[in-house]
Design brief:
Layout lengths: L7 E6 L5 H13 L3 E6 L9 H8 L10 H6 L2 H6 L3 E7 L1 H9 L5 H8 L4 E5 L3 H5 L1 H12 L3 E2 L3 E4 L5 E5 L3 H12 L9 E6 L4 E4 L2 E3 L6 H12 L3 E6 L11 E4 L3 H11 L4 E4 L6 E3 L19 E3 L3 H7 L7 E8 L3 H12 L3 E6 L11 E2 L1 E4 L4 E3 L3 E2 H20 L1
Parallel strand pairs: 1-2, 1-3, 3-4, 4-5, 8-11, 8-13, 11-12, 13-16, 16-17
Antiparallel strand pairs: 6-7, 9-10, 14-15, 17-19, 18-21, 19-20
Helix pairs in contact: 1-2, 1-9, 5-8, 10-14
The chain binds cytidine-5'-triphosphate.
The site of cytidine-5'-triphosphate has 17 residues, from α12, β16 and α13.
């Protein structure tokens, strides 16, 4: 089996008892055709030797940031670049903390800070260290930074304790690496642009016009598309959600910023515009904070924002072949959605009822109708994450159909 044939993996081995399993991981990765180069932290060398790692990789192992021979030979910056994926296994609590904090006080942490490659970590530590709020905080930070995580598993630990903290098995780590390096799934090889969240339109430097969109649906779609193998660019207005793992997230404020970010992200195979873009902005927004003056109210004049979905759907060149819009309606949902489909020039509209009674805005579930020029399909009420998966599945079969 050579699923990883030609792929170069940099394996950072941290200082934990699970380091012995990293030797098996090297074998598993090489069996799949990958070449592996190792960095061992000082802690790792308490458990295994650089020589053991080199014997299995067939390449010199690296240990020291200030190794003269190393710097002359390959150098830490090249180490951080000359690979397709970095795996950190075992990722100890300390190594995770250093990564989350951006520390660079040894070769492993310096390379991890210097690299722009995808990173997969396999945490391994005592159950109490894993469950400690500091480690969980670091995990959230790392995920938000786009770091991929495999494990840890539940199980008996070296200290005769039981619980989460056991490093994922080498075969599981190799499979996770394979998923990252060889995208598969219904949207493999596709570039998907998703817009999500509200936009903020400034009134002055401290005030803005906004809406109640939470971004939950759009973010769930971006995540589902990435899980379906797509390369995803998520263009998000201001939300309180973390950036989804494995997705390139671009943060914007206003509708005009969002349009600019979409233009920059093109070309794409699919556009899914789930953002609740503000229809208007304040034409006479103040450069300075507007002061309260006795008896006089500020006179805000509104002007129309660009319609991002319509702009991209109507263009002759560089239009994603599949354009999906959302319709947030409070009445005559399907009728309005059909009109929007025609007016905006997109291929599909996901219509939903956002009247307050439905609790869709900010809520976790959604009842949607999938509207195309020839068909209306009503889905049962589903969690937003399930709406996302079902939509992505549908788009996968539509793009598949377009190919044949
Ligand atoms: N949309 C957009 N740019 C805008 C307004 C809307 O890209 N300036 C997109 C949304 O992301 C969504 C679709 O258009 O996919 C419909 O958004 P919606 O707010 O329901 O429609 P509006 O065009 O604003 O129409 P109305 O407010 O009159 O219902």
């Amino acid at each position: 089996m050579t699923a990883l044939s030609g792929k170069r993996i940099l394996l950072v081995i941290g200082g934990g008892i699970a380091a012995y399993k990293s030797l098996d991981l090297i074998r598993r990765l090489r069996e799949r055709g990958a070449s592996v180069r190792c960095i061992l932290t000082a802690g790792a060398q308490q458990f295994i030797t650089p020589l053991a790692a080199s014997a299995l990789t067939g390449q010199r192992s690296h240990t020291d940031l200030f190794d003269r021979e190393d710097e002359a030979d390959i150098g830490h910056i090249r180490l951080a670049r000359d690979a397709d994926l970095v795996i950190v296994a075992p990722a100890t609590a300390n190594l995770m903390a250093k990564m989350a904090g951006g520390h660079a006080d040894d070769l492993a942490s310096t390379v991890l800070l210097a690299t722009t490659l995808p990173i997969l970590i396999a945490p391994a530590m005592n159950v109490r260290m894993w469950l400690h709020p500091a480690t969980q905080r670091n995990l959230t930070t790392l995920r938000a930074d786009g770091v991929h995580v495999v494990g840890p598993n539940d199980g008996a630990m070296a200290e005769a304790e039981f619980g989460p903290g056991r490093m994922a098995e080498p075969l599981e780590i190799a499979a996770a690496a394979e998923r990252l390096l060889v995208p598969s799934g219904p949207l493999a090889g596709k570039h998907v642009i998703v817009t999500s969240g509200p936009t903020h339109e400034p009134i002055d430097p401290v005030r803005y016009i906004a809406n109640r969109s939470s971004g939950k649906q759009g973010h769930a779609i971006a995540k589902a598309a990435a899980e379906a193998g797509a390369r995803v660019t998520l263009i998000s207005g201001p939300v309180t959600l973390p950036d989804p793992a494995g997705v390139t997230t671009v943060h914007v404020e206003s509708a005009r910023d969002m349009l600019q970010a979409v233009e920059k992200a093109l070309p794409a195979d699919i556009g899914i515009f789930a953002a609740a873009v503000a229809d208007w902005r304040v034409a006479n927004a103040g450069e300075q904070k507007i002061k309260k003056k006795d008896g006089t109210l500020p006179n805000l004049s509104l002007t129309e924002n660009p319609d991002i979905l319509a702009t991209v759907s109507h263009r002759a060149e560089n239009r994603p072949p599949l354009m999906v819009g959302f319709a947030a309606e409070t009445e005559h949902v399907i009728e309005h959605a059909k009109q929007k489909l025609a007016r905006k020039g997109c291929d599909l509209i996901v219509a939903n009822d956002v009247s307050t009674a439905g609790g869709v805005m900010g809520g976790d579930s959604n009842t949607v109708h999938l509207v195309s020029a020839s068909n209306v399909e009503t889905w049962p009420t589903l969690a937003k994450t399930d709406v996302a998966r079902k939509l992505v599945e549908r788009l996968g079969s539509l793009t598949e159909g377009a190919k044949s």
